[in-house]
Structure formats: C-alpha cells, structure tokens
Amino acid sequence: MSLTVTPFREDFGAEISGVDLSIPVLPAIKESLNALLARYAVLIFREQSLTPPQFMVAAEIFGELMDQQLKKYVLPDYPMVGCNSTDDLPRKNGKLQVRGENYHTDHSNERCPPKATTLHALQIPPTGGDTQFVDVRKAFDDLPESLKIKLRGLRSRHVHQSSRSPRELTKLSPDDLAKIPTALQPLVIRHPGNGRPALYLNTGRMEGIEDMDPDAGFALIENLYQHATDARYEYRHKWRSGDMVIWDNQAVMHQANADYDPEQKRFLYRLMVKGQALSPAEL
Ligand code: SIN
Q1: Ligand 1 atom 7, closest CA
Q2: Looking at the domain that runs over 4-280, which CATH code has it been given?
Q3: Residue 100: CB within 6 Å of ligand 1?
Q4: What is the DSSP string of the chain?
Q5: 175-208 per-position pLDDT tens digit
Q6: Model pTM?
Q7: Measuring from atom 8 of ligand 1, which residue has the nearest CA?
C-alpha cells in the first residue's frame, strides 16, 4: 500500500487514498496515518466498505476504542459501534432534530474526552446532511495577542447540558443523568499529540467560566465561539456512502446538518478513540 495525501488546506483536512481499511494496515502505515491525523485533524477515506468489526479495526489504527455514552444508539451485536440513523431522530414541525446540530467537540464533560471520533457512511441522502468542521488551532492562532494572554489559566466546567445551551441535548432519565460526569477543562488546551494550542469550546456543555461573573463568562465563550466558527476556519464534508471520516476532537469542532429530506435515510456507524486528560496551553 502506498498512501496518497491530498490536503484541503496547508494543515487542515486531507483526503487519503491508497489504503484499504477493510484489512489491517502495516505498522509503518499506521504510524503515517497517526502523523497525518495529528497534522491535518480531519482525514477522509473514500470508497471503503466496512463491516462493524472491520470499522472497529480501522478505528483502532488511531488508538483504543471508547464506549459510546448513549447506549440506545448502538448496534445490538457490536455495542462499541454507535449509529447515527434518521430512523432514531425525532421530528418537530416536519424537521428532523439531528444530534450534533451546532458546533461542538465530543463528550467534553468527560475528564478524558475522546481523542478522535470517526463515522463510516452506509447510506446518504442525495442532498444535504453534510458535516462541518472548524479548525480551533488556527482560530486560536489568529486571536489578538492581548486576548490570548487574557485566556491564560481560564477554565470552564463542562456538564451534560449547559443552562445556556443553544440546543437541547439528548434527554436523560434522572438515574442516567446522575451517572454523567462533569469536568473542568482549560479554555485553551495544549494538543496532547503535537503541543499546538487550541480553543476548547462546547457551548452546549460549558457552564460559564470558573471564578468569572456568569454573564461575563458566557459572553466570552460566545465571542470565542463566533470567532472560531467563522467560515474561514471551515471544511464542509459532503458525504458519499463508503466514506470513513476521522477527526481530532482536540483540534476541531464539528456540527451536523438537518437540511435533508426527512424521508431520505441517512445512516452512519460511529466510533470513538480514547483520549487523555487535557492540559492547558502554555500561553
Ligand atoms: C456528530 O457526531 O455530531 C454527528 C455528525 C453527523 O452526523 O453529521
């Protein structure tokens, strides 16, 4: 196998060809793919056709698999494998209520959030249903130096659903909610793989800023979120069935789109790769 890498930007997003993920890859390819993920943050593999066990082996190239938090959306025979399916989505006034419909990073309320998340598309509507990604490393780099200094040492408590969340997250029973962790996370993290600083934002889960007046804390989060979700930091993935896309949760935020015909099925497998506790960037 010889990898061909087609970057979308200098160091954000790349399509990788020349690899068949239905069979285990050699150690040298594994090392290259990990280096590519650390650099480009979103990797696209087209024309893969993976069974759930093959998808698990492909995701394991990037680390140990992490349990799905929402057990009701997993494959019964392969509980590590989640599924994003139109069939599971509620509708309001005819519109699908998709999970992940504003920019976020996965499970930031965990002390050790997933390093990466991957989706493998089995069925895709003819139009719509793209996934958008923004590069929160570049968004941080572009902030004025005076603001970077102000962010030094700031942390936010990430909970299941913030009191000011812009969207309603999956409803949990009181028992399930009690089991969901919360975590105090740096506002600017040091990427565990390559040391790059990155904004760490999730407006659905952030409960203000530690030791800051709530309104001021939420206003700062909103300003940073508006900046980081600007179109200049975006890669928008138009799915084809057979795509496997993996992204680095410590380098990008992502969002789903509910803009497709609810009668058209969209079905993807989902896996997460375990991460480690996050450290603050040295600013
Ligand atoms: C998500 O993980 O937020 C869902 C992405 C998608 O289905 O497009």
Answers
A1: 256
A2: 3.60.130.10
A3: yes
A4: ---EEEESSSSS-EEEES--TTSPPPHHHHHHHHHHHHHHSEEEE-S----HHHHHHHHGGGS-EE--S-GGGEETTEEEEEEEEGGG--EETTEE--TT-S-B-TTTTSSS--SEEEEEEEE--SS---EEEEEHHHHHHTS-HHHHHHTTT-EEEE-SS-TT-SSPPPP--HHHHHHS--EEEESEEEPTTT--EEE---TTTB---TTS-HHHHHHHHHHHHHHHTSGGGEEEE---TT-EEEEETTTEEEEE---S-TTS--EEEEEEE-----EE---
A5: 888 888 999 999 999 999 899 999 999 999 999 9
A6: 0.95
A7: 256
